Amino acid sequence: MAYDPSDLPDVSGLTVGIIGGTGDQGRGLAYRFARAGQPVLIGSRSAERAAQSAAEIAALPGVPAGGVTGTDNDEVARRSDVVIIAVPWDGHAATVAALAEPLAGKIVVDCVNPLGFDKQGPYALPVPEGSAVQQAAALLPDSRVCAAFNHVSAPLLADPEIDRIDLDVLICTEQRELVDVVAALAARIPGMRGVYAGRLRNAHQIEAFTANLIAINRRYKTHAGVRVTDL
Fold it and tell me: Which of 28, 36, 210, 222 is deepest in the core (most CB within 10 A)?
């Protein structure tokens, strides 16, 4: 079955919440979705920090008035249809566990990469559950969880001069019906495609591959992504 974006559902009315929306990856995704006209809520442990970050994003080129607002994580989880987890790995488990109740029944997209850094460069960290998204799934038994947006460059997302980001978003989930929703969200960003990449057990190598991309980017001074050929 060839990739056909015309089959994707209309997700333009879904509110996207971003937990960790004050960090580089979260801010970048918030900007791109808001710029595409998607209602966006930015979450943080501090409602004031979230509101400040939202105001800064709202001032960027292409963002419609009222397109992005910020508040605390709990409120974002309750008010959003789709929630993206974009927090640092060292705070991942605690943040996700604290939101189990408001995230019940919600689509949760985890884009966290468990990485370490030393003098030799980035490397993947072991995760007892297997991967960050599997940890999230274990902590959110009543949510609909998937992994996606792991390989999107934060500097590209944040650069208002860049109109297209040509890469594929690899999606791992146990619930195949989530694939089209997340792929449709990815397609809201010009140049992106969402591609099903297997069940959650396949997510660990996707998260770990981010270390390779960082090494590539440092060596060649670029912002490399992933594109699946012959699709």
Answer: 28
Indicate the pTM of the whole model.
0.96
Domain spans in the chain, listed from the N-terminal domain onward: 5-220
**pLDDT tens digits, one per residue of 96-108:** 999 999 999 999 9
CA distance 133 to 223: 24
Instruction: Provide Rg for the chain, Cα atoms.
Output: 16
Burial 183-218 (b: 16+ CB within 10 A, else e): bbbbbbbebbbbbbbeebebbbebbbbbbebbeebe
The CATH code for residues 5-220 is 3.40.50.720
Burial label for 30, CB within 10 Å (0-12, 13-18, 19+), is: buried
CB atoms closer than 10 angstroms to residue 127: 19
| Mean of per-residue pLDDT scores for the chain | 96
Cα–Cα distance for residue pair 204/139, rounded to 1 Å: 17
Residues constituting the chain: 231
- Bridge-based pairing state of the strands 144-147 and 167-173: antiparallel
